[in-house]
Fold this sequence. Notes:
The chain is α+β, with helices and mostly antiparallel strands. It has 7 helices and 8 strands; from the N terminus they run αααββββββαββααα. It has one domain (about 20-220). Strands 5-8-3-2-1-4-7-6 form an 8-stranded mixed β-sheet.
Amino acid sequence: MKKILLLSAIALFAAQLRAETSREDLVTRIETCEAILQDFMIHRETAIPASVLQKARAIVIVNQFKAGLLFGIKQGYGVILTKKADNHWSLPVLISAGEASLGLQLGAKSVETILIITDDATPRLFFNKHFNVGVDAKAVAGPKAAEVEDNNHPIIDAPVLVYSKSTGLYAGATVKAGYLSRNDDANRILYNTNYTMPELLYSDWVPAPPEVQPLMAYVQKLAP
């Protein structure tokens, strides 16, 4: 019975991925990503240190669903925001997330991840079809606020610092967290524009609709 329920859940999730996405669904994704970031920050054991946020040139928030029977499937969505030359944060641009792994895996869970990108070159790798975390750019598990406060933990010099609620990573560990990819179709629906990721992240040509402004304001407050 458990296997039947798991297979049903995987089938339902796959059907949702194939279904045509409405703008309301995309707004919900934005709101979910904001909630994920807020949840990370209000708990001391998961909060990102202010010293890390000060170095941020881009922030990626990812929400994934992982399920497996004879092979693992991890699919989901996220957003990326970049810090512009005037120190204001960009529109949140929707991305897709995925990973597949062989081997016997049972169970299903949600995986929430935040990437703090500390240079200006790495966000532009998202312009390619796929950005492989830990492959296209070095990624390590970032120090938590509690670690920095208690142990005077040094801030790791890496282009991508990874914060995840689903794995017991430790600072300095090499991370390979699957691939992220641009989702021009979703952004076209959300922003009602034919501009794609580069213009949305680095220009002021598209005004921020009311639905994305709370996330932008929260990121600006965290990393002014």
